[in-house]
Amino acid sequence: MAAESDGPKRGPKAELLRRRLNDLRVEAEAARGREGTQKRLQAAVRRTGEPGTGTFSGQRVSDWAPARADKCKLPQDFGALLAVVAVWSAWAGEASLRADGTIAPAWRKANKGQWDRLLREAHEEREEPVTAAGADAAEKRAHIGLYLERVRNRHRRLNLDVLGPSGMAGEQAMIEVRQVFMPQLAKPYVPRMREELRLALRTRGELVDELEARAAELPQREEQPRPVLAALAGESGRRAVVLGDPGAGKSTLAKYLALALAGGLEAVPEELAPLEGLVPVLVELREYAVPEAWGDTVEDFIERAHTQAYLPLPRELLTGLLQDGEAVVLFDGLDEVFDPGRRAAMARRITAFAAKYPQCRVVVTSREYGYQSHEFASADFCQLMLEDLTREQVEEFVRRWYRAAYPDDPQLAERRIDRMLGAVRDVGAVGELAGNPLLLTILAAIGQSRTIPRERREMYAHAIEVLIERWDRDAKLLAPPTPCTTDVAHALEGLTVSRRLKLLERVARRMQEGVGSPAGTFIHHDDLIDIVRDFLVESNVGASVAMAAAKELVDHLRTRNFLLAHYGGGLYGFVHRTFMEYLAALDLLRRREEEEWEREELVALLAERAKEPAWHEVLLLMAGRLRQKDVAAFLGRLLELYWAPEAVRGPMLPLAVRVLAEVEEVGPPREDRQRAVLSVGALLVAATDEDADVRESATIRLGWHSADEEAFDGLLRALEDESPDVRIQAIASLRKAITRPESARPALHTPLSDPDPTVRAAALDALTLRWPTHPETHAATLTALTDPDSTVRADAITALAVRHPDQAHPLALRAAREDESPSTRSRYLRLVTLLWPDAPTTPTLLTDRAHHDDSEEVRTTATEGLARLRWLATEIA
After folding, report:
1. 175 with 405: CB under 8 angstroms?
2. CA-to-CA distance for 322 and 326, rounded, in angstroms?
3. Domain segments of the chain as ranges
């Protein structure tokens, strides 16, 4: 294949390859700088060792990815092409290369197929005879190819700036939809009412409701759920409405479908094979419902949206695709058309569009609230309801998430996976939230910087902030509602995020107090308006304005809030019980802080609630933020109830230990059963509880009694507990066992061979901190230098450096260059800078890592180390 023949027979596939390469080159050069690019590229490509790179010349890619299409030549060696793409991707910030310069297996797996296809199709295209019809077809393919490329770029990444921790915008890991998407199961939609809601409505005499009436007319059948992708790709899915709860993943499903059909995955999933080759067209209905677009036909709006987003799909070509059935049109977010009349009109437009293009597939997504099925049922649309993620899907999502978030540090990824999976499996509230895709994504994002469930309050606070403020504004880009009058507008403007949170706390406490009643954890429309009105009146809003503003705010909650939702009739409830419990706890804490209750009143209330298991999570969420004396008094009352007659004992001991697990410090207990005391006997009972959190907290408190023989034996038994967290706490308690060090030290050598690296690290830290000069500690440190876990090895070198710097220095130098974990290499660089700043090898090491390490984190650490050395030199001078 002579390169010279590329020019006259270059078609859309060659042009697509050139465009992809050119875009990637521009991005890479912007990140790395153009000076010396060809020379650096040549060296880096040869370093990959891919076939065809041994004689690679960096200048060659000027022919593959020129700015002008008429200068383009096709690469001959796929290995060289893949190496170039991997290097440019690394320069642009992707984890495409390993530390030794070879291509990372995970990146190769994700990208090899699409680049292989691009090059193969470009070569095959060159051999095709060119006819007039062929030229038209080639132009069509070229337009579609460029359009699909734009679709891939537009939808491939998750927006973690919205979902991740506040203040970290732009610092989140770049996670792509294809890496973590979990296709849910779906059932045929039947508008049924939850039994608890039916009971609550019956209690209020409001059971006659449109939802109930429609449900009564439908056949009472129970169909098994099926994979939603297969349902949409089947013949019955040619016209489909996909319904789901808030955060159920409807929009992500639409984007995943678009991405899959646009070639944004390694391959089209097997379930979507019947749709392969169809062109996806995503229509976001919230943008269509705005006044300036409402006069457009569907086709007009698609053309307008494509023009604004630079999606090159000409109107004539689009019309042909729709008429020939070569497209899938995805209408996303019918529920985000908030005006009921306009929403009904939008439904009619969609069904009319489907009738106009009978060969074209049409998918609509919507929340169940406000959805009127008649229009779509009459147009023969199948209607599906998304199910929550299964436990297996949740666990697979967690694994995919953290492996995508930490591609350069697999050991850190596995630790994060173990931590999050432990929370999902062991903590009911976290497991309940995780079934919702949006909340699971928030959990995963926040779990990168927080320990869940230990810091679950911060996680709940973050999720609530996202749901009441950032989701509508930043993710959905929805405009705030327009108040009916200026006075109402001013009243609602005063409801800042913090004040809305305070208002929701009151609502949550009121609902939590209904636990066990026929109304359950719902609140009626009238009661909700009363709470909002009273809250506004307390804020110096006039009574009449407050009432009007309350009605408007509740209507806003009814139509679009993702936290407090309308469930039918006049009843509202939180989308997840966990949020109600957390907000109710905040309200009780606020009332205590504002001195609404004296300590004895508070303790009496909490002790009474302790007898009701439905209140336990609220009490635990409070415990971590109560004053120290309040916690001590509450613990004392719980123990009084525990040692009371059998009739009132209940779960008081496990609850007391759970309370202790929530607080950092309440002081050592006194030997007095009548106050805030947990005796050794009680702790030993708790240390065998079936709940790992209870065992962990009991193990911490047993350390206070380590002089007691029974308590000490309990700590030794805890070293063999099935939970790594319990074993770690046992190690910490034994390290502090001042009165029995001769027994504690030998016991801590056993966990040095624990299968969990965090336990091994804890044991090594305990020995080197408490018994640093003991010969057996030194021997254990030397053994740990060959541990398979990078963190344990780093701990060993750090400990060795304190007592034996001459031994540690060469080990630290080598590890700073060769350790596979970027975070661990950074740790070694900081250690070398701190302990050996005057060694001639230190600036050499830092300079080398600042310029040549593949990790930005390591390069930054090295640069900071060099700056520190220069600062020290200046200070000494």
Report:
1. yes
2. 6
3. 3-130, 186-214+226-387, 392-454, 804-877
Q: Which two tokens stand for residue 432?
A: 């309940």
- pLDDT (tens digit per residue) in 841-865: 988 898 888 888 888 888 888 888 8
Other beta carbons within 10 angstroms of residue 440's beta carbon come to 26
Contact, 136 vs 314, CB < 8 A?
Answer: no
Please name the residue ranges forming H helices in 748-821.
Answer: 757-770, 775-784, 790-803, 805-818
Residue 45 to residues 54, 112, 600, 848, 855: CA-CA distances in angstroms? Answer: 9, 16, 73, 20, 17
Contact predicate 797/808, CB 8 Å: yes
Cα maximum dimension of the chain: 97
Q: CATH number for 186-214+226-387: choose from 3.40.50, 3.30.460, 2.40.30, 3.30.1240.
A: 3.40.50
Torsion of CA 130, 136, 139, 144, to 10 degrees: -120
Alpha-carbon distance of 391 to 389, in angstroms, equals 7
Q: What is the Cα–Cα distance from 846 to 832, expressed in whole angstroms?
A: 9
Q: Which residues of 535-556 are buried (b: 16+ CB within 10 A; e: fewer)?
A: bbeeeebeeebbbbbbbbbbeb
E strand or H helix at 382:
strand 382-386
Least confident of 212-221, 264-273, 368-377: 212-221
| 43-48: long-range pairs with CB below 8 Å, 24+ | 44/87, 44/90, 44/97, 44/101, 45/80, 45/83, 45/84, 45/87, 47/100, 47/101, 47/102, 48/83, 48/86, 48/87, 48/97, 48/101, 48/102, 48/103
> How do strand 327-332 and strand 361-367 relate by DSSP bridges?
parallel
Q: Parallel, antiparallel, or unpaired for β 382-386 and 185-188? A: antiparallel
**Dist. CA 85–CA 20, nearest whole Å:** 10
Please tell me the distance from the alpha carbon of residue 626 to that of residue 628, in angstroms, as a whole number: 6
375 with 344: CB under 8 angstroms?
Answer: yes
The pLDDT score that the predictor gives to residue 474 is: 43
* CA–CA separation, 836 and 585 (whole Å): 51
Is the pTM higher than 0.70? Answer: no
- The string of pLDDT tens digits covering residues 120-152 is 888 877 666 555 555 566 677 777 887 888 888
Pick from 587, 612, 625: which is nearest to 509 by CA?
A: 587
Cis peptide before 453 (omega within 30 of 0): yes
Q: Which residue type is seen at 737?
A: A
